[in-house]
Amino acid sequence: MKVLTVNFLTCAVKACKTSPLSFPLHFQDAELEQSDIEYNPSFLRNILPRVDWEALKVTANELGFTTVPAEKPNPAPTPTNPDTNPTETIKESPEAQPADDKVMRDLHTLLLETEVREGKMVCGNCGHEYKIKEGIANFLLPSHLV
Amino acid sequence: MSSDGPQNDSNVYEDTHVHQVYEQIASHFSSTRYKPWPIVERFLTGLPDGAIGLDVGCGNGKYLAVNPNVFIIASDRSTNLVKIATQHRPHTSVAADNLSLPHPSSAFDFAISIAVIHHLSTPARRIEAVAAVLDTLRPSTPTTGTSSGGQMSIGKALIYVWALEQKHSRRGWDEGDEQDVMVPWVMKQKTTAEGTEERKTFNRYYHLYRQGELDHDIIEAGGLVLESGYEKDNWWAIAIRQPQ
Predict the structure, then answer these.
(1) Claim: this prediction has a pTM higher than 0.90
(2) ipTM for the whole complex
(3) DSSP helix/strand/coil, B203
(4) Start and end of every Methyltransferase type domain (chain B) (predicted)?
(5) Closest partner residue to B52 among A47, A135, A143, by Cβ?
(6) What residue spans define the domains of chain B?
């Protein structure tokens, strides 16, 4: 399971969804594996606006990654201009690239190449543990929690 | 144990007549499911680059390979199917129940649930399953005031279910027929030493949708149907959350 995925997971128990404590889930005993995925800067730039940065920092810290910037990098050239055509801002922008490259490559490694093979994720609200085995997280609840 | 009454009965019924069946036929089922349906393909290829979404009830994950520019978190109730789906990089597949999805609300650009909700055995549970999908979608009004999300559009879901009206299909059902049916899956297995073939039949529960029923369920679940139709023995609909 990719680290990016954890940014889009929360506790499966309905009562926990409204609690801020249920997101992100917290790792315990995580065993990591690096896979090799082709670096695709435009894909990465396009998914970044959807990443919850505070949650990612918590996750990265729990997994021992220390290179995540305090603020979300914004590789778009004119991010705050409301008149900018959205399709323009996410196009390739060579001049903005060099400064971000190292940060973006580190993010690629963390979000897409790092896989959690074994371990568990724990809900900060109810304490329920979700096991990860052979890279697959299991969110099926025991009947008393459904 | 009897305190949850009918709800618990439905759980047990679906566990026996849906979940356990897929768990046993997973590999054989997967070998027959490789061609994406055209409407699903069109929906996925029309998404903006970098969109993040869900495939609820992903089966063997045949839709994960359609658009390489989006990221999909796929889930299925059958862990054996999830193991097959997880081979589709760079996406992730997890084991989860569609009535207890492990995803934050209002976070996703899109969700698909293809040939899944017809396996739920009561009207209330089918509507609940639609509502669970809709709940994951980004609503029409931004929930936060941050400017970073300014370019993102509202989330859309594509839902597909088996139709009652399919008189030209192999099954031949049509208007007026029983909607709650058991559908056999015949699996040929090689038995040990002699190499003789054994046929084993598994029956799966389906609810066959009448014309208009899927749209009705989506509205009941708090959704707004943008587009809907019929394709090859199935009803489909593209929906968003009803604007508040």
Answers:
(1) no
(2) 0.86
(3) strand
(4) 54-134
(5) A47
(6) 2-163+209-241
